[in-house]
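Issue 218. Parser rejects a valid record. Input:
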Amino acid sequence: MKATTLQFIGALLLPLLAVASSFDPFHRNDGRTDPMMGSGQQQQQGPFIPHEYLRFAEVKRHCRSVLSAGAELKFDANRAAALMPELSFVKGDWTQGPGSAPLIPFDGTDMPSDAGAGAPAPLPLATFVMTHVDAAGLRGKTALNVSGVLGVAVSRNGTGPEMGPSYVSPELKVWPGSTEMKMLFEGVYTETGDGESVLCMVGNAMLPKRADDAAAGPWGWAKHTDRNNFQPPVRRDEGVLLVLRYPTTMTLTNRAVRGELTSTHGKSDAAYFDAVHLLSQLGAYSNYKFGSEDELVSKACSQDRPYHDDVIGDGGGLYRGGSLCGILDMFSSEDAFAVVPNRDCNSTDDAVCKRLGPFETDDDKSIDETDGGFKGVSIVMQDIRCEPTTAGPAGERSAGAKVSAVFRAVPPREHRYTAAKRSGLGGMTLSAEGVWRASTGQLCMLGCLGDAGAGGKAKACHSRVCLYVRTGFSATRRSIAVGQITRVDGAAQYPPLTFRRAVHPSELWNRFGVSGGAPLSMTYEYTKAKQAGEFLTRSEPFNLGTAMAKSLLSYPRKPGNLADESNALSMLADDLTLHVPAVPDPLPRERFERPFLQLEVLSLGPLVGRNYPAPVFSGEEQAKRGKEAPSASGTTTETTAVLNVSAELTLSGDTYANVSTLSLEGVYNPVDGRMYLIGCRAIDAPWRAFSSLASSLEDGMDCSIEVRVDYPPTTAQWLINPTAKVRISSTRESGDPLRLDATTALQTLPIIYREQRQDILSRRSVEGILRVATLGAAIGAEFTQLMYIKAHTDVMPYVSLVMLGVQALGYSMPLITGAEALFARIAAAGAGPAPPSYVVDKSQLYWVIDCVVKILILGAFLLTLRLAQKVWRSRIRMLTRSPLEPGRVPSDRKVFLYSFSAHLLGFMVILLGRYVSALGRPVRAEASYMDARGRSHALRQWAVTLEEYVGLAQDLFLLPQVIGNVLWRISCRPLKKSYYVSVTAVRLLPHLYDYVRQAPAINPYFAEEYEFVNASLDFYSAFGDVAIPLAAVALAAAVYVQQRWNYKIISRTVKTQQKKLQHLGSRVYERLPSMSSGNFEAELVAGVNDGTAIGIGPRRDASLTS
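Output the parser choked on:
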């Protein structure tokens, strides 16, 4: 009955649920429009946007002056739709003068109270997004109905205001460190006859309520706004007026967007707020008009007499091609130019030498705190516009370009990403326009500070900006672009401000396309090669042992089978490049920081960057290439010659701050795999400090650093630690302020070379083959033991079941854990293609070896169980023959108790040792590991520890047998000598292999470490590789002595004093089984068949007689 009722109710509710799911009161499923979309998209608007324009009467009243000045609009619907992205701006500036009615509060409790001047100042930013333009019936109109959203924010990190695709109602958000307000507007768009476009709009806002408490201020409630259930007190207000004014044509001095946000209420009204002023600029959707200020630009950048500065030295190594616009397109607004200290300032006025060029830094004290060193100060280049042209007199024309950009100075405490997105114009921005001449390699521009249109051209446009693109590098010149800002009139108000864009070597070919061809072709001048050669000679005295090692080992060198020299050098440069974590060398016992080391090769010999051969697909071209390539047989003098090399070394971590970035130049010796480099580091110091250090610096850099990099050999990589070593030291005298405090010595984690990547599984294959061989030997030994006890049934009960159980447990662990991983790996292989870098994980050889290993482990496990079964049955039959004397039958209870106690004691000692050693190691925060396919897995420490100790117990598998031999006082040989010697040798082989290999601590390519031996375990440390084999050999020797010595002594005693052995026999039977009996087990079975006294009928165990 209940079920029928529920079905009936469900049938009634189903249509209601369907209707409810399709009901969309806010039409969220309607087409939405990206506010930054171009033309032709307005028809996809949804009801989120106020299309009905219900407040036109208010707009007409408040925007009377704007409407009266509007001219007839002469454009079509496409131009009207293009207004949406053109009139929108992101992260402009807004200010509000001092008054009694601020707009929004700010909760500064995100920073500690004692942060003081070190805390970044909150940034007032504003974003405006046009959401709709009514383009219907344009003919004869002087205004268009428009709507939009304005977001104003005050945030410490500069992330706000965040604007979404559409809005329903205004909102206000307040939390520590950030306040955001979004207001919805509708109004009109007009154009005046004097080159100005105007938006006049009325809007809705959720205004915060101001308190009347004079002591706490208007925003007394805006403290600790992250408390639970906090809701800011707000009031809805529709008396907000926004007026934005745009230039119709974007030029050097006419690009600013100015606006004003005011309240239509009287000052006595609670919703009133003081006027807010907005300042931004036209963006990428507006066309820029060059040539509006040709007279001013020509004065700053004369074509007849180009300006010469000292930033380029002799003028060599500059780009003079015709593709400057293509090169500038590679720069983004996030590219930051570092500001160089005013090292050559010769003014007696400290204030002049500390000035950041023409920029006005009065509102940001963090720049003044650098004391002219400008540490952390940068300049970003925004809104780059470039038009290729030809320059020069008729008949002598050369490639050129017209360029416009905005240079924005970024204080140390402002995030560069935030600065790159800002669009406001002020004292920290320099709008520039100029010309590029390929003949000189100079981009000369006139710079105008802030809003030049409002302040006047003569007052704002007094700066000259010269920019150069470098194509030649050296040890002290590693910038792809360098520039300088000076005054046009030569006044000494500030010294020349130099800035440069440092480039990481990998950026040259990955981003800027430097590959020996277009658009950039780089050269390198080796200025430290002689000094590095002296370093090599001083560090490599002749040694016979070293010479022999060199003859036996091979290190990274140029491939000898490539016809193209640049391809060979590129491959060698890849091998010499390092991106790997590192640890101090030697490893300290106390906690230490593990840096990430990056050594990127910039040039090698004549090659700068990389030059890889194009793929060859046709058989004819492949054959042609094969004929052109020389033979690779043997080692030629050319492949082992010392090469000039330049690189860049970066180290992460506060410990290595003094050497965090080094420009390196020197030589590489392929014979012993060592780099001898001279390092140069930039000096961050106040401008006054450079006057005393100028004589010991080169272009402001300290080049008194020696760096040696030792690479592991390419051969015998499984016997020698495949880690690189880096040693950094200073050549300055003690007491020199620029001397490094101590020598930095690091050792990387294991690395792998280019050719070894194709053979990444070779080590696992070698270890898998060893695993197969050892498992085969173990199976053979167990089989001989099985045959031995079948032939000598009298010794069968004296084989320890605990010993066999330890071996069975050791075999079962990889079966339990490995089978799951095997099936998971097969499932993953069917899920989809793996990343190309992990294709080697599918090696057929590895899969074959892995399957063979699993089968052999299963075979060894089953043989061990068979041995245990026969021992167990023999004891049952022995107990059946002597039921009144169970003490006569060997028992493993005490053996297990003693063995367990010994292992428990050893385990506690190991845990204590680990605890003590962990005190000096860094804390491992991650609780997971990544497999070869890049998937993350949970790290179960208890399982790892258990598996480790099971392996140790298996190494000492003879311990239970030794204890049993003592307890049972054996007079026989339960274990065949070949059995326990062979199994002991099998267990010792991994330790011998590991000891000879000197295995690294971590294998970065496989989460499961090694198939053959896990060298990261404490049991496989250098001490364990010696102690464990000695203990195992001692146990094997004890078994040998127990079986052989006891047997001889007891045998002689039996012949003379047979009665003394009665404690080993039964007093019920009148005779003892003969030790020479050929089938003791069969005799025991016969005795059982005759045992009618205990009610056992005739039975025959086929498994024991077979």
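Fixed in the parser; the record now loads. The chain has a mean pLDDT of 76.
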